[in-house]
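hey
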């Protein structure tokens, strides 16, 4: 047992994205300010106070959430959802003649017209490996004779063939985690029976006094395992077990994929011609489908109804969320993302949030074309940097703003890393966040972010660059709402150039390490987004300029 424990201790970092918290912080800490509240949030209250003092009025802004789906019934979201007023719900007719039937709240690209939906799918690495295996494996090939497109695919396949191999250490680690998971579930069952309820927080368990010896042993067993995983406070037993189960299942699926091609649920359910980007009118209007947790949380961060006395406050106060389901449990498909972007643009979105990512993009040219389409229609895109504690200057993370053919950077695209608060993690950076001096633009709060989740109007803390990105999307929407004359490129410049740079007095670790650094070594701007600074800059901006003239920034 000692060996297992030691192995698990070495694997704590795996679960930091979901659980690890050193200290309780208030719900909504990401909206606070260091000056007033001693938390490294985005200083949102002062932003709204500034707008009020300036007597600024807002106009509605549509924000598209390309994600896993959105709970359209949630108490904090139902009033801020975009609705296609040209579409009559449930009549089975394409009333607005856009090619999409009953797209009332948006569109689901992961389903079919019979109402069936993809829940799980494979990772892109496996899809690349198996789709190109017969073409490239054991073949003598001259890359000098390949076209640019084929050379790209060949290099992707070579990398995938190496990464498909599973080490014995990886398998042993998962086996250890499975042992601990079984023990956790056994103890959890006894605790639930003793407490008389199915859900409890770590804090509740710590205060609970069991009446039986079995209950006392079970309580101790659960707490010991949670300590190994770094879990504290308001995290629920169901969240912990669910996250560990999901992680184990995902890893085992990866192991199986090394030996056998994963099932193609897309071909079975969606049945589109995947290789034809013009075959685009597939899917259905069910934006909730079966997996809306992630997208619901993201939507709440951006725009949950403010000051309604319930739940939490989103960043932006005059937003309509357009739900586009394009991210399954597994890697998204390039085609769905490209068409999702185009759908959002065509239906009036001015900001698009993309809290997803993957290491392969076989049809990158489709996504790049969609990004260019968004740029031509003055739409700003925001994308999560990823959660692998990696430098994405050196490790691929898609989609990215760099053109497939030219390498030129799209000017309407912001890549977001996740910050934390030293009170949470001991660092201004979140331990899980990807970074990149040339690829990541800004950092934003993404650790222990409290927001909406599906089913019975619930809320939860989640972690990831997925949570940091909608914080920035919210700021972008706020600026576009109160300063509608500003273009997407101008809003990007304002967000980036108003980011706060902190000096060496603030502890900043390279994510995944305890090595001290500065944000200027981790992202282009070297800064943390700030709503107050952004709206002040927007207010002083001259619309005749392409980019705002920024006075020399003071360090904090």
């Amino acid at each position: 047992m000692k060996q297992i424990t030691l192995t698990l201790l070495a694997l704590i970092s795996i679960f930091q994205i979901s659980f690890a918290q050193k200290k309780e912080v208030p719900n909504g800490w990401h909206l606070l300010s260091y000056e007033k509240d001693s938390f490294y949030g985005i200083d949102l209250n002062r932003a709204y106070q500034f707008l009020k003092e300036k007597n600024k009025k807002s106009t509605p802004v549509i924000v598209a959430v390309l994600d896993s789906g959105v709970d359209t019934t949630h108490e904090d979201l139902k009033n801020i959802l975009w609705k296609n007023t040209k579409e009559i719900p449930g009549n089975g007719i394409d009333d607005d003649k856009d090619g999409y039937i009953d797209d009332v709240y948006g569109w689901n690209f992961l389903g079919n017209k019979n109402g069936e939906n993809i829940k799980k799918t494979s990772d892109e690495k496996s899809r690349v490996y198996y789709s190109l295996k017969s073409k490239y494996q054991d073949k003598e090939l001259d890359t000098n004779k390949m076209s640019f497109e084929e050379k790209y695919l060949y290099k992707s396949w070579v990398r995938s063939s190496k990464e498909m191999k599973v080490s014995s250490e990886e398998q042993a680690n998962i086996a250890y985690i499975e042992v601990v998971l079984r023990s956790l579930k056994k103890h959890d069952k006894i605790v639930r029976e003793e407490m008389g309820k199915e859900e409890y927080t770590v804090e509740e368990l710590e205060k609970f006094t069991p009446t039986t010896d079995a209950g006392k042993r079970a309580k101790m067993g659960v707490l010991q395992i949670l300590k190994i995983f770094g879990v504290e406070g308001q995290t629920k037993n169901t969240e912990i077990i669910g996250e560990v189960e999901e992680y184990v299942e995902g890893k085992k699926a990866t192991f199986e994929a090394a030996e056998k091609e994963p099932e193609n649920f897309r071909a079975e359910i969606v049945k589109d011609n995947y290789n034809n980007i013009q075959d685009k009118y597939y899917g259905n209007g069910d934006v909730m489908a079966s997996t809306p947790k992630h997208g619901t949380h993201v939507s709440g961060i951006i725009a949950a109804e403010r000051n309604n006395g319930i739940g939490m406050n989103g960043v932006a106060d005059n937003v309509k969320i357009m739900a586009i389901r394009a991210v399954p449990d597994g890697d998204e498909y390039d085609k769905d993302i490209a068409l999702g972007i185009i759908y959002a643009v065509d239906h009036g979105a001015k900001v698009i949030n993309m809290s997803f990512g993957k290491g392969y993009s076989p049809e990158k040219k489709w996504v790049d074309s969609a990004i260019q389409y968004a740029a031509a229609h003055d739409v700003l895109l925001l994308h999560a940097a990823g959660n692998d504690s990696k430098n994405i200057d050196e490790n691929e993370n898609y989609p990215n703003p760099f053109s497939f053919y030219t390498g030129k950077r799209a000017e309407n695209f912001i890549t977001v890393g996740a910050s934390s608060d030293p009170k949470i993690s001991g660092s201004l950076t979140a331990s899980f966040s990807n970074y990149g001096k040339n690829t990541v633009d800004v950092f934003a709060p993404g650790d222990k972010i409290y927001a909406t989740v599906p089913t019975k109007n619930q809320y939860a803390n989640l972690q990831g660059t997925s949570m940091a990105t909608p914080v920035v999307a919210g700021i972008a929407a706020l600026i576009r709402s109160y300063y509608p004359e500003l273009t997407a490129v101008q809003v990007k410049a304002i967000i980036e150039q108003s980011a706060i740079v902190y000096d060496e007095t603030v502890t900043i670790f390279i994510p995944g390490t305890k090595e001290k650094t500065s944000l200027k070594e981790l992202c282009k701007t070297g800064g943390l987004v700030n709503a107050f600074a952004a709206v002040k800059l927007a207010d002083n901006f001259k619309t005749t300029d392409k980019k705002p003239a920024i006075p020399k920034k003071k360090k904090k």
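The first helix runs from residue 2 to 10. Residues 449 and 496 are 22 Å apart (CA to CA).
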